[in-house]
Amino acid sequence: MYRHTKELQWSAKPERPDALYASKLQEVIGGQFGEMTVMMQYMWQGWACRTPGKYKDMILDIGTEEIGHVEMLTTLLARLLEGAPAETQAEAAAANPALAAVLGGQNPQQAIVSGGFAMPTNSMGVPWNAGYIVASGNLLADFRHNVAAEAQGRLQVARLIGMTDDPGVKETLSFALARDTFHQQQWLLGIEQLIEDGHTDGLEDSRKAEEATEQASVFYSFHEGSTAHEGRWAQGATLVGDQEIRFEEGRALQDDVQELPAPDPELFATYDGSKGPGKPGTAGGAYAQGAENLLHKAKEKLTPGE
What are the binding positions for Mn(2+) 1 in this chain (predicted)? Predict the structure, then answer.
């Protein structure tokens, strides 16, 4: 259950309308690293969190704050669109011929679809995509992604501040900068807490016993004259464990050659016949292959090695 209050978390009062800037502001609302993304990402991570208590509460607290940030920025955008599209565009174009040339790139959906309000899109009008969010159920992996999301979002806000001289807009975005700064720290501190509580050693290393151990501490260089060996990432001790990092020339580690099986004749791929006839990929064939795989697994369980 979520409760709503009419007060915004911070003011969102531009000094004057600016329809073109409103189009730019769409990026930090509905873009890949916009507020809609972190809002949905954190809420989904919080709902999926299987560790009740401080972790789940922290994730949902930040996610709930982000709901308010979406409301705050969409309100700012609606106020920037006051009088748009006709009056604001006409006045801006009359004052600045260069601006008139780019006004055609403004998102017309703000007027046609949403009635002078923000859209759940980026600055080019591309709809927000649920594929932007990450919620894996693994808190270490998710927290690391959250740091990156906040860093990218903050970078975009910083660029937007440089594109306006409106003091009201700057005040709103200065608040967004501050929250993005602290949210980066919250996720980094969350990772420290995960390590302290024994949930991780700081790396995502599930099924570590099944790793190809020799390849877990090598930097492979794939171009001549690389200076990558000068960096910490290519020398010294590994961050976890007591292995020494090695720098080596990139090379084939096994004798597997990039060759493909014969194609399904019903797919009409160009083929010279060198691999023999291909297997027809019918629905019946797929079921038969699945049954064959199950029989093979059962046999391995009953008579391993035979």
Answer: 35, 69, 150, 183
